[in-house]
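Section 3.1: Structural characterization of target chains.
Under the original work plan, the team committed to producing a structural model for every single-chain target entering the pipeline before any wet-lab resources were allocated. The record below documents one such target. The sequence was received from the expression subgroup and is listed exactly as submitted; it comprises 221 residues.
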Amino acid sequence: MGSAATEKDRDEDEGPTHQVTIAAFAVAKFDATFAEWDACAAQGGCDTHVGDQGWGRGQRPAINVSWDDAQRYVEWLSRLTGRSYRLLTEAEWEYAARAGTATAYYWGDESGKGNANCDGCGTESDGRQTSPVGSFKPNGFRLYDMAGNVWQWVQDCYHEDYKEAPADGSAWTSGDCSRRVVRGGSWVDSPQSLRSALRLRLSTVDRVNLLGFRVGRTLTP
């Protein structure tokens, strides 16, 4: 987990690289969509006032959702289904995003063109708005939009580096948890922000139009 010291555009909080053992887990094929969010809102589990910037709802990723909002969604989904849905841990997210790769992006070491939705990725949506989920090729695990489109909340509290980070794939929930980690980059970010190791921090109450989430699920034997 993390990026090598030699990786282009690397930030200090992406290291040190370290070994993590990941237990089996499920991860959504797509970011949570407005169709899914609106189903939760219709049943009283989610905020009914989450806006879409006029870009449309349906199969576009749900945006303007805070970490706290995402928690309410997975709690509702867990009650509805009787299964243990949650946000991914940061280690799970990076494992899922990389899909067995060690390159800067899951498609290679260069950002290239047409691989994702970002500002400079060579798409019709560049720097303008989100794309419907699944608009670009998936990674090696058949997961879509693990880079670009919207940043994805994960469960972990933010730390300045990976020193003393959990080695078992669990969420890092000690320290200042008023700020949580987001991963993956978005439609408004440069291609460099889509690297698999890059990480940012946001307040748990932040709601912005470049921010969504992806659902995970605990698997039990």
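The chain has one domain: 1-221.
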